[in-house]
Amino acid sequence: MQLIVLQLVSSLAFGMLLFLLSAGFSLIFGVAKVANLAHGALYVLGAYLGYSVVQAGGPFWLGVVVATLGGAVLGVLADRLLLSRIQGQNLKQVLLTLGLTFVLSDAIRHIWGADTKSVSPPAPFDGPATVGGLIFPSYPLMLIVLGGAVFVAMRFVLRRTQAGAMIRAVTADPLMSGTLGLPVLRVSLLTFAAGIGLAAFGGAVGSPQLALTPTLDSTMTLFALIVVVIGGLGSIEGAFIAALLVGLVNGFGAVYFPAVAQMAVFALMILVIALRPQGLLGRRLGNA
User: Which of 32, 40, 42, 264 has the fewest Cβ atoms within 10 angstroms?
Assistant: First the structure.
């Protein structure tokens, strides 16, 4: 029972990291209509920025703030300097973000090297915690709570605030939103920055949970795509549920069926596509 519960906590923590990654991806696609294949690389960049702050003697949470702000700034620069020049050209945007992935990966390898690096959990989450007589590592529990808090905050902003109403309007019909006077380009830019910042935030807070390597970007991008396909494009709730499902399937599969663990994740995606092509909580194309 102890091992099962420990694996459950670890799998849910990984699922929360996938949510932080895929929520930003889904948000960007929903508003800016950009399939950002550099999302995994930006997640890894955020992790390395946080690592650098810790190595320089700064507190862990300062590294998280630096990584989040750095990711948001990079998102603004990428949108204004690169993606805005080919707006509406989906294939070129996909190829550009794919090229950006290679650039960021090589830059990370050049600056931080190719060796595996690790970050220690911050106090007071660097020791064990006892819950119901069972002993757990504290940091995965904190990640579960943090991911849940981010989900609640995102849902509140999108459903209960004026900014969220503008984002939903631009997502549903950017042309009509512009006609009604909404600043479509500004909403798109800020959403892009927020989505990238969320990915960098996930990388920074996930660095004590996942070892840092420059090749982690391809793995995280693949997981983000799987989560978004399962949950449904543009759905934060779908991304949350799908991230937890993928985390559980991947975590328990790696322990009990290591030979087919990755196959199980893809099988889950194929099953969802077969039953609901639009994803768990996505909308069918053409529906309002």
Answer: 264
- Is 251 part of a structural domain of the chain? no
Cross-strand partners of 137: 128
**Mind listing the pLDDT tens digit for each residue in 182-221?**
888 888 888 888 889 999 999 999 999 888 888 898 889 8
pTM > 0.85: yes or no: yes
**Alpha-carbon torsion, ordered 217, 221, 222, 223, to 10 deg:** 100
Residue pair 97/37 in contact (Cβ under 8 Å)? The answer is: yes
Question: Which residues of the chain register pLDDT less than 50?
Answer: 285-288
Residue 221 inside a domain? The answer is no
DSSP per residue over 136-192, as a string? Answer: EEHHHHHHHHHHHHHHHHHHHHHHHSHHHHHHHHHHH-HHHHHHTT--HHHHHHHHH
pLDDT reported for residue 242? 93
If DSSP codes are grouped into helix, strand and coil, which group holds residue 215? coil
196, part of any domain: yes
Show the tokens assigned to 61. Answer: 């949470």
Q: Is residue 72 part of a domain?
A: yes
Report residue 60 CA to chain centroid gap: 20
**What total of structural domains would you count in the chain?**
1
Q: Which domain holds residue 130?
A: 17-214
